[in-house]
Amino acid sequence: MALSRVVLASGRPVDLTELRLSSTYGEVLEGYPCKPLNDLTIAGLLRSAEHTSHGGPVHLIPPPREYPDQYAGGFGPVEVLPAVTCVGSFRSEALDPDHDRALYRSRLTVVWFQPTSRIPSGRDAESALLDVDWERLATDEEL
């Protein structure tokens, strides 16, 4: 059973079957948000997503980066990502029309950032998530 169903901009419905939410800067003990820290955070999220996707495709939606007018420290200017990191596993009907609908489905793990912990549903999701090119990024798997 899906946590929610998201309707992509293409009209394709995709089921959210697993979702991990975390605070983007929840584990930062020292320092400040900056490009090196953010790049390490994103790389770690991708490694984790690749590990848990069991060989399935993983797609990163590049996060918006804000540069507040604050003092730049030793690691460069302050660079802030949205407050919540999201790693979601999505499923949908098979991409290949020759695949038996009862035996195949398509899947994709998506990593994205958003300002709140709201679970995407219907057409109510971050616009970048709704714009995911499922046909290009997802892959079919046999059940």
Identify the notable features of this structure and list them briefly.
30% strand, 3 helices, 143 residues, alpha+beta, 18% helix, 6-stranded mixed β-sheet, elongated
Description:
With 143 residues, the chain is of the alpha+beta class. Helix content is 18%, strand content 30%. The protein is built from three helices and six strands, in the order E-E-H-E-E-E-H-H-E. The chain has helices at residues 35-52, 127-130, 134-137; strands at 4-7, 13-23, 58-60, 84-93, 104-114, 139-142. Strands 1, 2, 3, 4, 5 and 6 form a six-stranded mixed beta sheet that branches. Strand 1 (4-7) and strand 2 (13-23) form a beta hairpin. The longest helix is centred in the N-terminal third of the chain and has 18 residues, at 35-52. The chain is elongated, with a radius of gyration of 17 Å. The two termini are 15 Å apart. The relative contact order is 0.26. The model has no long low-confidence stretch (mean pLDDT 93).
Report how far the terminal alpha carbons are from each other: 15 Å
Give the % helix: 10-25%
Structural class computed from helices and strand pairing: alpha+beta
Largest sheet: 6 strands, mixed
Question: Helix count, per DSSP?
Answer: 3
* Spatial extent as radius of gyration: 17 Å
Tally of DSSP β-strands: 6
N-to-C series of helices and strands: EEHEEEHHE
Q: Mean pLDDT, as a whole number?
A: 93
Give the DSSP E fraction (strand runs of 2 or more residues).
25-35%
Low-confidence stretches: none
Shape: elongated
